[in-house]
Design goal:
Layout: H1 20-36, E1 50-51, E2 66-70, E3 76-78, E4 81-82, H2 88-96, E5 103-108, H3 114-126, E6 131-134, E7 137-138
Parallel strand pairs: 1-7, 2-5, 5-6
Antiparallel strand pairs: 2-3, 3-4
Length: 157
């Protein structure tokens, strides 16, 4: 028996699919997208004026909305491109061709010079803009529930 070798049989093939690596990759992708998505803000970030009763403008959040921004230091932006206010009418006219809605949204930093905002509005009107939307933020009052949050019921005595 010393010269005899035992032959081991290989185990039968497993027909189940191993999904663990796929789940790992999907979780990593989910985390990456969750981190990156807030950074994909549209246009230039400005500290907008705060108002008590703003009018909701859902059209400003659309991907094809035309948004002009005025920063604190007086720079003007058309979408994500820095533009001189004098050059805006030609560019906006090109953007408004073949569109039914001729609405342009303006968001200005609350510390921007009023003169710069007026220049942008004048140049947009010269471009044939029918509707102008001035974007603001709502003031969050202390003690008031956040918009969409359920109001607390008074405590029973």
């Amino acid at each position: 028996m010393t010269g005899e070798k035992k032959k081991f049989k290989a185990p039968p093939p497993v027909a189940d699919i191993n999904v663990t690596p796929m789940v790992d990759v999907m979780l990593v992708m989910l985390i990456i997208f969750m981190v990156i998505t807030p950074m994909l803000s549209k246009g230039v970030s400005v500290d907008m004026a705060k108002t008590k009763n703003p009018i909701a403008m859902q059209a400003a959040d659309k991907s094809d909305a035309i948004v002009c921004a005025i920063t604190r230091d007086g720079k003007t932006w058309l979408g994500t491109t820095q533009t001189n206010p004098e050059d805006m009418p030609a560019k906006v006219k090109d953007m408004l061709t073949n569109r039914l809605d001729h609405t342009v949204f303006v968001k200005a930093d609350q510390r921007a010079r009023y003169e710069r905002v007026v220049d942008v509005v004048d140049n947009l009107r010269a471009a044939g803009v029918d509707q102008l939307g001035l974007l603001t933020e709502q003031i969050q009052e202390k003690g008031a529930p956040a918009p969409g949050a359920p109001a607390e019921a008074p405590a029973a005595k």
